[in-house]
Amino acid sequence: MGLLRWIKSQFICHLLICYVFLVSGLVVNLLQICTLPLWPVHKQLARKINCRLGYCISSQMVALLEWWSGTECTLYTDPESYRLYGKENAIVILNHNFEIDFLCGWTFCDRFGVLGTSKVMAKKELAFVPLIGWMWYFQEIVFCKRKWEEDRRTVARSLQNLQDYPEDFWFLLFCEGTRFTEKKHQISMQVAETKGLPKLRHHLLPRTKGFCVTVQNLRGKVTAVYDSTLNFRNNETPTLRGVLNGKKYHADLYVRRIPLDSIPEDEAECAAWLHRLYQEKDKFQEQYMQTGHFPGPVKSPPCRPWALINWLFWASLLLYPFFILAVQLFYAGSTPTIVATIAVCIGASVAVRWMIGQTEIDRGSSYGNRKSTRKKTD
Ligand SMILES: CC/C=C\C/C=C\C/C=C\C/C=C\C/C=C\C/C=C\CCC(=O)SCCNC(=O)CCNC(=O)[C@H](O)C(C)(C)COP(=O)(O)OP(=O)(O)OC[C@H]1O[C@@H](n2cnc3c(N)ncnc32)[C@H](O)[C@@H]1OP(=O)(O)O
Ligand SMILES: CCCCCCCCCCCCCCCC(=O)OC[C@@H](O)COP(=O)(O)O
Q1: How far is the CA of 250 from the centre of ligand 1 (A)?
Q2: Which of 3, 86, 112, 269 could anchor a disulfide with 264, C-beta 3.0 to 4.6 Å?
Q3: Nearest C-alpha to atom 30 of ligand 1 is from which residue?
Q4: What is the residue with the minimal CA distance to atom 23 of ligand 2?
Q5: Where in this chain does the record put each Phospholipid/glycerol acyltransferase domain (predicted)?
Q6: Taking Cα atoms as reference points, which of 227, 229, 188 lies closest to residue 207?
Q7: Ligand 2 atom 13 nearest Cα
Q8: How far is CA 194 from CA 190, 200, 215, 358, in A?
Q9: Is residue 51 within 8 Å of residue 167, measured between CB atoms?
């Protein structure tokens, strides 16, 4: 093992990275709370400030992926579409097979300058994840309970709020609604069979309600759907824990730009359109499995320095007082103070482990583990 790899795998490095992340995150969350009085007075300014504050948190994770683990993210797309990325509002559709798929998504957002404004339809449970979930509240993320009877109104309302959003944004939808597992796949294919739909090998059957309501409510604001298919080279199974340990992964993302105007307005047709899209996505994944690459030319955006600069800023601000405190404690600290400090470190470490646990598929929800049935209200 090289020296650098050994250093990256050391607990003390993880502790320092997580310390910067936790403390800066709390500071940012606090600053976000301070913007609350601004919302009724100057909503657009409050939104712009919150985008930049949010960037301070999410870009630290991007920096971890790009600069710490050195993960390579390659984009397969056509040059015509490439010119528009980051310059228009878009709905992004992504497969949901990997623990760090959201992080690769964030990396591309950063490279196209839309990380601060990036949005997602997220399960409600994530709203309670410290720092990230709290930050999302101020970034107007759309939360859903994955219970359509309750979501249909709240989701539509949150989407309508984005109609006057002042900056370009990407709205991410994992239409499969949950991460891929063999069991969930098997069950969703039984559902596909009862609906007379072709079987998918690499995807769960997409849930169409969220997509249709998104298209309906963002029509006029969003100009395109970016159909994105992600995979990792050499059958890598990336984890956030691996990224923190400095492990390098190789992500390949295939993106097709589809004008929103070409998506049917009628709900049933829109749902059928999404099913067809997933059948195509499945073929792209099959091709990737066979050949090791997606169709289309490679047009990767360059890595930008801002995520690293942001991390260096927070690190220089927060690590110096941390070291002073540690030295003072070591030389002059009383036993109770030392014990209390160690307890705080252990607490912070447990908190970060819990947050990382949220990304782990093995600890995922049971959503999609059985066929859900719904009373026909629509
Ligand atoms: C150039 C570069 C391009 C791209 C770069 C890539 C990305 C960057 C972009 C942005 C980044 C932004 C942020 C990223 C950061 C972090 C994100 C992290 C995580 C958040 C993600 C999540 O939390 S995913 C989970 C939440 N989201 C969703 O669930 C969305 C999808 N779901 C839906 O749309 C659902 O419809 C719903 C949630 C709106 C409602 O769900 P509900 O279950 O109540 O109803 P459904 O209608 O869906 O279900 C009933 C119907 O489904 C059939 N059924 C039953 N059982 C199953 C089964 N097991 N599988 C499939 N289908 C099933 C049932 O028969 C019903 O059918 P009907 O015909 O009656 O409708
Ligand atoms: C630089 C700092 C490093 C510190 C690491 C702390 C990181 C905490 C990150 C928490 C971010 C949580 C985002 C999780 C996204 C996710 O993957 O959600 C899963 C859902 O889609 C579907 O859930 P499920 O139904 O369970 O499959």
Answers
A1: 26
A2: 269
A3: 177
A4: 178
A5: 90-212
A6: 188
A7: 359
A8: 6, 14, 26, 32
A9: yes
pLDDT in tens, the chain (378 residues): 689 999 999 988 998 999 999 999 999 999 999 999 999 999 999 999 999 999 999 999 999 999 999 999 999 999 999 999 999 999 999 999 999 999 999 999 999 999 999 999 999 999 999 999 999 999 999 999 999 999 999 999 999 999 999 999 999 999 999 999 999 999 999 999 999 999 999 999 999 999 999 999 999 999 999 999 999 999 999 999 999 999 999 999 999 999 999 999 999 999 999 999 999 999 999 999 999 999 989 988 999 999 999 999 999 999 998 888 888 887 887 888 888 888 888 888 898 999 999 999 999 999 999 876 655 444
Distance CA 35, CA 30 (A): 9
Element housing 102 (H / E): helix 101-111
Question: What crossing angle do the helices spanning 335-357 and 11-34 adopt, rounded to 10°?
Answer: 80
Would the CB of 127 count as within 6 Å of ligand 2?
no
Query: What domains can be seen in the chain, in order of their start residue?
Result: 3-306+357-361 (3.40.1130)
Residue 94: strand, helix, or coil: strand
**What is the whole-number distance in angstroms between the Cα of residue 129 and the centre of ligand 2?**
9
Predicted TM-score of the model (pTM) = 0.95
The residue whose two tokens read 């199974």 is 237
Helical packing angle, 43-63 and 306-332, nearest 10°: 70
356 lines ligand 2 (CB under 6 A): yes
In this prediction, does ipTM exceed 0.95? yes
Q: How far is the CA of 158 from the centre of ligand 1 (A)?
A: 16
The best mutation among 108, 152, 178, 209 to test binding of ligand 1, ranked by most ligand atoms within 8 Å of the C-beta, falls on 209
Ligand 1 proximity of 226 Cβ (cutoff 6 Å) = yes
